Amino acid sequence: MDHPILTIVVPCYNEEDVLEDSILQLDHLLMNLEEEGLISDKSKILFVDDGSKDDTWRMIYKETLKGGRIRGLKLSRNVGHQHALLAGLFSAKKTSDCVISIDADLQDDIHVVRDFLIKFHEGYEIVYGVRSNRDNDTFFKRSTAQSFYKLMNIIGIDLVYNHADFRLMSKRAIDELERFEEVNLFLRGIVPLIGLKSTQVYYVRNKRLAGKTKYPLKKMIAFSFEGITSLSVTPIRLVMVVGFLSFLISLVFGCYFLALKFFGHTTTGWTSLITSIWLIGGLQLMSIGLVGEYIGKIYKETKRRPKFIIEMDTLNLPMPRHLINAGGKDHELNRTSFRNLSETN
């Protein structure tokens, strides 16, 4: 394939601080890649608005009106980074030969996109962007990330070390990804399961252009837990092992104290007894909670609710100019506005 059609998918959530610069950099990147003959002049940049509360969608739409490479996809509500990314991938593959996903803050080095494409031309279906180091991270984030990857490896989840969601996927790879029907998404773990020919490209991650990260500690912990429980049943098996060991220990101590009583010795140590009860009780509650988490995931999967709903795709539906040119930060681009688009136009 001499000149493949590339789409760069950019999930966005409240990214107005970085969006303008991101658009300029990515647009310039595509122009250079076209001049090199690595991609087709039909290549696009698809920004997916994941229910932003700021001016993100307005900025995206203004760019689409210029008739360039920018395309916008607006989701009906905030569904989370993974589902927003999935919406972009599934939409982009319809008109693309390959798709690259990248975050809007452009901390991932866009210059290695060229290396991604070279690997694609060599026949690779999936190209992972892998951080060569974590020098820009705090000590806490660096150590917790390392612990996370080690834990995932221990419980048998195949992850690409130091890889986030900066990757190239061929149309064929995304077609295969679409066959995975999980509602509980952890793409970093699912994509390697596709098994097509893949490789890695290393890069140094940049500092964020502006604004604040959308992944504070609370979200990072929730994301990690989602990854573990979505891809592995090892925690459930560990609960069973802990329960069995607790049973054996209790059986041994029970026999010991029964023997003491049989030989006339008085059993003392109420403190240790109460401590043991609280310990076992805590383990039981934690185990029930873990089992409940898995049951909750099964419940979500069986309901088969849609992963996302596309409210607007700029490829198909223009927006009235009076909504674009309104002064200030107009937050009235809501569902009602879009339902009336056909009448307005």
From TrEMBL:
Cellular-component GO terms for this entry: plasma membrane
InterPro entries, sorted: Glyco_trans_2-like (IPR001173), Glycosyltransferase_2 (IPR050256), Nucleotide-diphossugar_trans (IPR029044)
Residue stretches spanning the membrane: 238-259, 271-295
Stated name of the protein: Glycosyltransferase family 2 protein
Signal peptide interval: none
Annotated GO MF terms: glycosyltransferase activity
The keyword Transmembrane helix belongs to this UniProt entry's keyword annotation: yes
Keywords: Glycosyltransferase, Membrane, Transferase, Transmembrane, Transmembrane helix
Start and end residues of each Glycosyltransferase 2-like domain: 7-177
Annotated Pfam families: Glycos_transf_2 (PF00535)
Topological category with respect to the lipid bilayer: Multi-pass membrane protein
Keyword Transmembrane: yes
Localization, UniProt: Membrane
Organism: Heyndrickxia oleronia
